[in-house]
Amino acid sequence: MATPQLEADGLILLAQQKLTGLVEGEAPNTTDFAGVYGRNPVPIARVLADLRTLASRVLALAQDDDLARWGPTDLVRRCNFYREAPLTTYRGRREAHTRGSWVAPTDAAATGLALTAALDSLNGPEPDTVIDRIAWLTDRLQERGESAAHCDIDKWSAEISPDLVTIVLGAVHRSQGRRAVRLHYRTTTGRPQRPSKGLAVPRARAQKMPASLWDNWALQMMPLNAGGNLRWATVQQALAVSVLQVGTWINLPQAQQLLGTDLSRKTLSRTLETLHAHEASVEILRAVTMLADVLDQSGSPIDYARRREVFGRRREFIDPEEWAGIRRHAGPVHDGQAYVQQANRWIYQRLTGNPIRQFPPPSCLDPLDTAKKYPQFLFGLDPVEIDGLAKIGRQVLSAERIVEPFAWEPDIPHAVAVDVRLPGVVRESIHHSKVHDVILEGALSASAVARKLKTIPAHVRCILERQPLNRRSPFVQRNEKWRQLYLDGLSATQISQVAGGSSTSILKELRRMGVEIRSRAPERVYGHLIQEVIHRYSHLGESLQDIADTTGMCRATVRNILMREGVPRRPCGRRPQAT
Asked: Half-sphere exposure (CA, 13 Å, Cβ side) for 545?
């Protein structure tokens, strides 16, 4: 019989030597396939069974381009001739080609190519290497429309090992897996695993984490280029829910119930879909999986589940007198008992880890002390105020006999910081002094500072929470200078040019300090036309636009003059025509 000549260093002969060593070796175990089975020795019989299973998939799914990687053209042609030949059943009928792992190849070329492909695929030193080598298999499964769920891969062979199943799932999920499935099987990092059943693992993990993920982790995982599709508070809750799904069969409603979050299902799903559609979605899921491992291995000094139960429905943590004392101690830049509910929200958020929207509404709410004003409250906190609020929080814990730190967050491991390329921002990427300088220049909100420093408002607030600006001496001196210049006759615009700051912030601080704001330009520029404007409006019945056209003013200036002079306005609508 004519036989083809093979290269001595070709993949087929190397595979034959490898198989001969496995079959004829004296040792019952091997460590040569660490990418699939790990570093511990595994039985050689188990490896051979998986090689048979994968080789059968090669014969069933591989195309000519795939086979050409493992053998010469002559062998590929002979293998295809065997694959295209119909099978003969025991009843003597000729049937279409359907070959599974239960059919042993009767052709040497087909056997050699299939086993060479299987050995080459499983011979990687790391799981990621093996997944890369069998990626072609998932493409062929997708082209043929075959399902690749866990139960379907189990059916490939009765002798297939769980290790091979999870490796194939890792390859499938990398190319076409849904977000939740990739978390369930942990296919984004390390070795894929079959998810654990029940709620024991996610319940234990929920005790160690807040309903809103820690700032430092969420900052690095939230994409900066997502536009207006992602909100900071929503992303924190969505990521926290995702952490509970790692390695477990838990679904979104169950995870929400364990964390106590009331985020709507539609909002949660849309946020997770936006994160998964991002180009860095694999890195985000990898970081979520690593965070779950950190919590499982290292634990947490805080029992968040207990705190949610004890403090979740509490409305008051600090009374108005205590808050007023803290503010007075912070310096003359602050006034009275304002924003006591914001102080309660601050303590509530750090005690429970819940989003602010879950804070129970107070019985008597000041219109200026609403939840919408909370971001501005955070932006304006003084170091003395933060220390005072933290002290009250620790006293609240002591009163409940809870011996825990007031606040805590896990450190980001070196593997995440170095190996995972997250789409967010590192908190330390901007020094706190730069944030302080922008505020002293007159920035009135975290959004204004973020635009100046090209980051997101949440990043600014996280920096200020850990390195708050001492507003007592700098702001008092600055505001006093603004007041003196204004009393000397300079306008807000002129003051901004001389002493810095925006005219809006200057006027805001002057009003807060009790300085009477002078009338604006229209009274001085058009002072000689005030009586004419009143006469035309009240006696001649002209409209604001007609008066503006006649006197050379704008319509808004005419309206402001009438309001300032106390002239009663006519009702809106068309006036009746004189008869």
From this structure: 0
